[in-house]
């Protein structure tokens, strides 16, 4: 009997070896992320990496996550209805408090109807494929949030990216390609999450109308914070998406549109149909938050006030939203800048690719109604004295 010939097979690549190699690459590119624990303390103070810091990186712009009325609403609903919804809304998870929230959203946003999703991410990856398919065209700003791109990809439609806020580029793409496709949807952030600037909604809306295209905005960072536009410019926008996880300090995503559009989305958006309903207590918190947002206009406009003050102190372009980016370019510079600020008592997290384009790593400074003006001044003063800041202003 012939001896079996010994074949030397290559070492199998184990999943952990592969993972370790990938992590090494990320570290080499200064793109490694860490899950640092952050514990909220009083107001805007947090405990983070062993220090007490003033948080300038959160999205809880109005401090509503800890507002006593919001917390009480959640606690009452928690005791009354329990910790979880127990099923998807199309099965038995549709507690009446959902339609209360949806009516409130539709009224505030100036539309006929609204639908609440488990999160903003769920909303975008559900809504876009519910409206668009293979033969259709989706136009996206180059800087839209990652979950808009994911939703567009899931739809199977042709995707074209236009230069950031470049209306002429949109016109050119529509004129050249609109006729080759069935339906056409343009999607943009209303407030850009990493840049803090606003989309030219009027111009985009006019172009969409002229070219038989629909307009969808993602107002995750808006909700009345940037001007008196709590209604999200409903007369110009066909589909308004947003989140309850940021300005409202609670959790969940939503979409507002005409009733038939909402009914269709509820029947076809897979992330809605096949995911469990939000816990009723979370929905109760959102209802209370929206009450506060609607009626306390001064509180609502405070974060923008501080952002403007801050941007002016640093000689940056005047802020259009509570988000002020300080673009430093390289990821390692952003990491270094954040570290020096942390040593001085400020939490400003660095934002690196792939969250932002290559070469545009930045500090993203956000303002809350809970910040005190002297905290804002102190941060501006501290940043102003940093060598990396002078360098990035010189190169801008
Ligand atoms: C945060 C964010 C989302 C996702 O919302 P979540 O409720 O956090 O899932 C969607 N779009 C934009 C622009 C965002 O900033």
In short:
This protein is of the alpha/beta class. It has helices at residues 15-28, 68-81, 97-109, 120-131, 146-155, 167-177, 201-210, 259-268, 270-273, 280-295, 297-313, 331-343, 373-384, 387-395, and strands at 38-40, 45-48, 51-55, 113-117, 137-141, 158-162, 184-189, 214-218, 239-243, 253-257, 323-329, 346-347, 350-351, 361-366. The protein binds pyridoxal-5'-phosphate.
Fold and architecture overview:
- With 396 residues, the chain is α/β, with parallel strands linked by helices.
- The chain contains 14 helices and 14 strands.
- The chain has helices at 15-28, 68-81, 97-109, 120-131, 146-155, 167-177, 201-210, 259-268, 270-273, 280-295, 297-313, 331-343, 373-384, 387-395; strands at residues 38-40, 45-48, 51-55, 113-117, 137-141, 158-162, 184-189, 214-218, 239-243, 253-257, 323-329, 346-347, 350-351, 361-366.
- The chain has a 7-stranded mixed beta sheet with strand order 4-10-9-8-7-5-6, with helices on both faces.
- Strand 5 (137-141), helix 5 (146-155) and strand 6 form a beta-alpha-beta unit.
- Helix 2 (68-81) packs antiparallel against helix 10 (280-295), helix 4 (120-131) packs parallel to helix 5 (146-155) and helix 11 packs parallel to helix 13.
- The termini are far apart.
- The relative contact order is 0.16.
Mean pLDDT: 95
Radius of gyration: 23 Å
Elements, N to C (H/E)? HEEEHHEHEHEHEHEEEHHHHEHEEEHH
Q: Label the structural class.
A: alpha/beta
Helix fraction, binned, reads 40-55%
Number of helical elements: 14
Main sheet summary: 7 strands, mixed
In whole angstroms, the N-to-C terminal distance is: 78 Å
According to DSSP, the number of beta strands is 14
List low-confidence stretches: none
* Distinct ligands: pyridoxal-5'-phosphate
Q: How much strand content do the residues show?
A: 15-25%
* Quaternary structure annotation: single chain
């Amino acid at each position: 009997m012939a001896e079996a010939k010994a074949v030397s097979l290559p070492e199998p690549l184990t999943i952990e070896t592969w993972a370790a190699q990938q992590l090494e690459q990320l570290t080499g590119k200064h793109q490694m992320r860490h899950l640092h624990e952050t514990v909220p303390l009083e107001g805007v103070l947090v405990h983070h990496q062993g220090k007490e810091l003033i948080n300038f990186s959160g999205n809880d712009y109005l401090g509503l996550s800890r507002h006593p009325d919001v917390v009480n609403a959640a606690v009452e609903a928690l005791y009354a209805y329990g910790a979880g919804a127990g099923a998807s809304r199309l099965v038995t998870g549709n507690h009446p408090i959902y339609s209360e929230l949806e009516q409130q959203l539709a009224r505030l946003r100036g539309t006929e109807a609204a639908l609440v999703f488990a999160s903003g991410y769920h909303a975008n990856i559900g809504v876009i494929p519910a409206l668009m398919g293979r033969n259709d065209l989706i136009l996206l700003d180059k800087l839209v949030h990652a979950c808009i791109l994911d939703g567009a990809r899931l739809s199977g439609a042709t995707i074209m990216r236009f230069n950031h806020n470049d209306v002429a580029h949109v016109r050119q793409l529509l004129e050249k390609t609109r006729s080759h496709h069935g339906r056409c949807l343009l999607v943009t952030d209303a407030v850009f999450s990493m840049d803090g600037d606003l989309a030219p909604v009027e111009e985009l809306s006019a172009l969409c109308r002229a070219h038989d295209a629909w307009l969808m905005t993602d107002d995750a960072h808006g909700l009345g914070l940037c001007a008196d536009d709590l209604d999200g410019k409903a007369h110009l926008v066909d589909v308004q998406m947003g989140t309850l996880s940021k300005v409202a300090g609670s959790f969940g995503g939503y979409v507002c549109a005409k009733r038939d559009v909402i009914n269709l989305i509820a029947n076809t958006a897979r992330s809605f149909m096949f995911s469990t309903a939000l816990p009723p207590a979370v929905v109760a918190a959102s209802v209370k938050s929206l009450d506060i947002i609607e009626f306390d206009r001064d509180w609502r406009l405070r974060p923008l006030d501080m952002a403007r003050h801050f941007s002016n102190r640093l000689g940056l372009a005047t802020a259009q939203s509570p988000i002020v980016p300080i673009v430093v370019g390289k990821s390692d510079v952003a990491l270094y800048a954040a570290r020096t600020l942390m040593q001085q008592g400020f939490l400003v997290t660095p934002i690196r690719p792939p969250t932002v384009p290559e070469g545009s790593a930045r500090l993203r400074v956000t303002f809350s109604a809970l910040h005190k003006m002297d905290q804002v001044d102190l941060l501006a003063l501290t940043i102003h004295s940093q060598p990396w800041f002078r360098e990035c202003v010189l190169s801008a």
